[in-house]
Amino acid sequence: MENSHDNYEAHLKEEYLTAHEAAELLEVNENELRGLAQQHEIPTHNVAGVFLRFKKKDIEELKNKWRIQRELFPEREAYFSHHNTVGKPTFAERVRDFWHFNDFYIACSAAIAVLLYFIVSSQ
Length: 123
Fold this sequence. Notes:
This protein is mainly α. It has two domains: 71 residues, Multidrug-efflux Transporter Regulator, Chain: A, Domain 2 (Orthogonal Bundle), CATH 1.10.1660; 35 residues. It has five helices and three strands. The protein is rod-shaped, with a radius of gyration of 33 Å.
């Protein structure tokens, strides 16, 4: 009797994973894993009607599917990827950048305006 019980436990350990082991394998936390299980995105099994277990084969297939999906269809971010390290520019910074990139055009426009003033006032 003891031998069959040991065989059964060994079979469970080889074929089924606990929530913690499955979460580590999928590289998610246990709460996310349980959420996926509740949404029926991961097949689950109850051992003795109480313990939530995952088939190792199913978890490995899901991990491969996720990896392929990540590599073939990467998600693009709609904003600058370092949004939390770079704050929104202030008004002064925006004016300084505008001057930096347009100083030549602003100076030329001012010179033309001064020349036009002298031309018009001399007549």
